[in-house]
Amino acid sequence: MESRLLDKSLNPNKLLKEQFVSNLTGSSLTEIAALSTIVPALVVLRKWSSGDNTRRDAAKKNGDRVLPVRKDWMQYFCTLVVDYLTVVLPVLLVFTVLDEWAYMCSISLVILIAVYIMFKRSQSHLKAGLSQLPSLRADISSYRVSVVLVTCLCILAVDFKIFPRRYAKAETYGSGIMDLGVGSFVVANALVSRQARNITTMSFRTALSSISPLVFLGFARILSTSGVDYQVHVGEYGVHWNFFFTLAAVSILTSIVRIHPKHCGLVGLLILAGYQIWLSSGLNEYLISDKRSADLISQNKEGIYSILGYWGMFLIGVSLGYYLFVDTSLKGKNRNTQVVKVWVLAASFWILAIILDSYIERVSRRMCNFAYVMLVFGQNFQVLSILTLAGFISYEKNLVLEDAFNQNMLGSFLLANILTGLVNLSVDTLSASSLTAFMILSVYTFTLCMVTGLAHFFGVRMKFW
């Protein structure tokens, strides 16, 4: 009887797939730093190459330095395909078949950027371009798209053996590159949130209506995964909790407890300090234990208790977003001053993460402890700091790929989740060869980019509220 039920399941390898992503220990912090260098470095180099092409065309068009606009669908999609080949495909290679070359790739890209900057510094268009650079807010969209691209790539790649296990989420302590996904979404949202922009006119009712899509998606995920018997790693958030509920809970708390962005950083630090003391006093043992009672809190203990860590993270992000990109008192500061601040913050967060990981408690996404929060900020500001290098040559508009994803951030993420589910239900990912896995991932990422680009080209905004 049990065998017949298993045969009828839409996902007969569910247990094997759950075991495949369980009991992992993560990667090293240095490898995470190396991987975090690759995506923004590729984006910067692609922007520079696009800028050079634009300037060559601009010599015939009165000095216009803007990236080629989409005059027709052929030009648009050709540009999008080039963006895919120069940014997404190399990232896919490093995250799969070239994983042992991650350090070499990141070092090579850094050297290439440094050489390119030195080569271009003496050229006249550089000085002209630097004088017209906008504030760092223009780099935020590039950073947010980088977060979404890596997340979308990893959520399917992790189900194949071609994806290194050390990149996947750690079970208790430690961190793989995938552990930074939810934290990166929280930080990316915080930096550009209404709170960071000091918009206080939104009523609580309006706030709830803006959060409702996340709650809906959270319940939709529960129903869909149980309906098709989809694999769920309980150790991530709990039995019923998921990523969408965490984002919704943080938004609800921030809407209820209204704090001026000037004070959000201090409040966030106090929340994290108090939560870390609670963890070190024995809460951590409860959260990493596999024992669960029948009540909802125990069933979803990882997701519920970690809200405190994510809320503290969000508040710090709000404060940083306000001071770096919004505060009117900084209007007179030039871009170079802001860039230096971003680089100093990136280095400071990395140092704090290493200290906390070594002397207080090891990094744990499962608990969202203090070390994890600092690691997320260090990694995110590292990505942002590298993206600011684009301004050392000249500032070009975003890539077509970036504009497409930036217009439909949540929509593209949902599409990635749907495609991931379809692939898992139709392909035995555990037995797929490296070649088959890479071909599937290539088609998946290409389809995701093209559909998102198609929506952008025709002005379709996949917004749910």
Could you give the topology of this structure?
Elements: H1 2-8, H2 14-20, H3 29-58, H4 73-94, H5 102-120, H6 124-130, H7 137-157, H8 180-191, H9 204-227, H10 234-237, H11 243-256, H12 261-288, H13 296-299, H14 301-305, H15 307-326, H16 335-359, H17 370-387, H18 400-407, H19 409-426, H20 434-457
If you had to describe this structure to a student in words, what would you say it looks like?
The protein contains 20 helices and no strands. Helix 7 crosses helix 17 and helix 19 packs antiparallel against helix 20 (434-457). It has one domain (2-41, 69-457). The chain has 465 residues and is mainly alpha-helical.
TL;DR?
Its main location: membrane. Helices cover 68% and strands 0% of the residues. It is mostly helical and 465 residues long.
Number of helices in the DSSP assignment = 20
Please identify the structural class as seen in this structure: mainly alpha
Termini, distance in Å?
46 Å
What share of residues is helical?
55-70%
**Biggest sheet statistics:** none
Radius of gyration: 22 Å
Number of strands: 0
* Beta fraction: under 5%
One letter per element, helices H and strands E, the order comes to: HHHHHHHHHHHHHHHHHHHH
Task: Choose one word for the global shape.
Answer: globular
Low-confidence stretches: 1-7, 54-70
- Number of discrete domains: 1
The chain-level mean pLDDT equals 87
